[in-house]
Amino acid sequence: MSEHTTTADETLPEALAALRDDFLAVPERDRLQLLLEISRELPDLPERYANAPGMLERIEECQSPVRAFAEVGDDDVVHFYATAPEEAPTTRGFASILAQGLSGLTSAQVLAVPDDFPFMIGLTRAVSPLRMNGMSGMLTRAKRQVREQIAARA
Q1: Sign of CA pseudo-dihedral 97, 14, 43, 39
Q2: Which of 26, 138, 143, 146 fits a 20 to 30 Å CA distance from 104?
Q3: Is the pTM of this model over 0.70?
Q4: Dist. CA 142–CA 128, nearest whole Å
């Protein structure tokens, strides 16, 4: 897939659009450094997940041991939780982007995030296709987890 911006910004929530714009605003050679900075902003897991990491789903597309879970609250607000090793800053950066960009959205907003969002932030030449697939896997799983929780409540 090629790098691009979406013309349907109404489907890209504000936090994700701001993160995308931050990446696209810096020269391509500096985008990896921005990703590494964002990797340090990955929130810690809430205690209920930190003490039971098996509750988070393993992201098989990631080379690193990444686990994530999108939790839909009773108020229909989504919280995306992830854990990734500090020695895998690229993957950790992707997890942080999704944690920052998906948390606080409604389930409908999460489901409306374009599947190709990982390719919109201008990193396809800075990181390997395998790592890009890892971020896509995180987003795909988050959306599936949201759909499953909505269906379970119906």
Answers
A1: positive
A2: 26
A3: yes
A4: 22
List pLDDT tens digits, range 105-126: 999 999 999 999 999 999 998 8
Instruction: Report the distance separating Cα 70 and Cα 103, nearest Å.
Output: 8
pLDDT tens-digit series, residues 63-81: 889 999 999 999 999 999 9
Q: Between residues 30 and 55, which one has the greater pLDDT?
A: 30
Question: Rounded to the nearest 5°, which phi and psi values hold at 83?
Answer: -135, 135
